[in-house]
Design brief:
This protein is α+β, with helices and mostly antiparallel strands. It is 29% helix and 23% strand.
Length: 435
């Protein structure tokens, strides 16, 4: 198990460019299974999660050509159907959260798929009902195969379009159902669909491949099935979670930073949410400039009540940034309630921040009150273990703010979502060593 050794308390400066969006990449990479023709993608983040999914695709028989860093062509002309029924394959899928999205394309194209219980972050229960119930409404049937510990989905006569009202606006569930519906017979209507930029990007790529999709960007999506899809070229958006993480990095270290090529119009409420913590930021073309500040004052609501920052489905605030915002708030002036609605274990890392001297009251698994130090007291250096990607980057930000030397173990979790983060932050003036 690798670790980071961080010398904290250093001011940073310069510019940094976000990687391609991890969550989008996992969706569009899965979509290459829908066609036998080449699909070329650029700005693919070369992080553990995407590289593991690419290896999984290779094992299935997908031809993968790497032209340059982040630039790939995929051709799924000859899939090894025996392998995708094997226990070895299902075991690999179970270890990778993003692999849940290969089930929709496989079911649509080959009439069969295994859906293991997802692995990945230790952040609480992650429901799979939306995926499987959506497939059932498209005409699939399933049984639980105890031998491989996965749900076996079959549709020997193909899928048939239908109307469905999703029980939750699941991003991965919506993506999976949309992909399956592109090759179904007839029309599929999905209400209460997720409309995150990741789903919009996936839908646009599918349209470029020949799919008929209406309502992109709304919560009502209509998919008219086609007989086959073709090839396409696709550029992955910058990762909005990295953009938010770098805004938080500038604030927690009181540094002046420029974040380049952010696709500002795709960031939604993220910039305004950081402004509520007192972080000044400026849009400069397609860049964000964050000036150094001595103090960051948390807003109150108009009636004077304590500010609450909560996650919500798009266009609300993504839950993936609440850990970062919580850490930033520990050094702001004022108090804020962080309400993590989606996952019941994502705030448990706050005990490590309390050990570092942060003033946090964990009210319950979903809510924490943060009383900011206003940079009058530095966090203490400490030794931590990263439980998931987002808590890991939040711990790294805390360590960069703290005086002294900190150690973060299990950094493989951070590497799953952030490409060469130590090298990129060291280029800004940080001192992070990989051990």
């Amino acid at each position: 198990m690798s670790s980071f050794i961080i010398e904290g308390g250093r001011k940073l400066s310069g510019s940094i460019t976000p990687q391609g969006a991890k969550n989008e990449a996992l969706e569009v990479l899965s979509a290459v299974l829908l066609t036998a023709e080449p699909v070329r993608m650029s700005n693919v983040p070369e992080i553990l999660d995407t590289l593991n999914l690419i290896d999984l695709l290779k094992g299935m028989g997908v031809e993968v050509t790497r032209h340059a860093k982040g630039d790939y062509t995929f051709k799924a002309a000859d899939i090894d159907l025996e392998y995708i029924r094997s226990q070895e394959f299902v075991k690999k899928c179970a270890a990778l959260r993003g692999s849940v999205m290969i089930s929709g394309p496989l079911l649509a194209r080959y009439g069969e798929a295994y859906f293991p219980k997802p692995g990945g972050d230790k952040i609480g229960r992650r429901r799979i009902d939306t995926h499987i119930e959506g497939f059932v409404k498209l005409g699939a049937s399933y049984v639980y195969d105890s031998a491989v510990k996965a749900y076996h989905l079959t549709a020997p006569k193909g899928l048939t379009g239908s109307y469905m009202l999703l029980d939750e606006a699941s991003v991965t569930g919506t993506a999976n159902i949309v992909m399956a519906a592109t090759l179904a017979h007839g029309t599929t209507t999905i209400y209460n669909a997720a409309c995150e930029p990741y789903v919009q990007q996936l839908s646009k790529m599918l349209v470029a491949m020949g799919a008929h999709i209406e309502g992109i960007g709304s919560n009502l999506i209509t998919v008219k099935g086609v007989e086959k899809l073709g090839g396409a070229a696709h550029v992955i958006l910058p990762d909005m979670i990295e953009v938010g993480s770098f805004i938080g990095l500038a604030a927690i270290t009181r540094s002046s930073l420029t974040i380049k090529n952010v696709h500002y119009d795709e960031l939604g409420i993220i910039p305004e949410s950081f402004r509520r913590l007192g972080v000044k930021l400026e849009q400069r073309g397609d860049d964000i400039y964050i000036p150094a500040q001595e103090s960051y004052v948390i807003d109150s609501f108009i009636d004077g009540s304590i500010m609450t920052i909560a996650d919500a489905p798009w266009p609300g605030l993504t839950p993936d940034l609440l850990s970062v915002m919580l850490v930033v708030a520990t050094q702001c002036k004022g108090s804020v309630l962080i309400h993590q609605k989606m996952f019941e274990s994502r705030l448990f890392f706050t005990d490590k921040l309390i050990d570092m001297g942060a003033q946090i009251i964990l009210c319950d698994p979903h809510r924490a009150v943060v009383i900011g130090h206003d940079h009058n007291f530095s966090l203490r250096a400490g030794r931590m273990t990263s439980p998931d990607i987002r808590a890991g980057i939040a711990m790294l930000l805390a360590a960069l703010s703290a005086k002294g030397t900190s150690e973060i173990e299990n950094i493989e979790q951070i590497d799953r979502g952030y490409e060469a983060i130590d090298e990129r932050l060291n280029a800004l003036g940080a001192n992070i060593k990989r051990k």
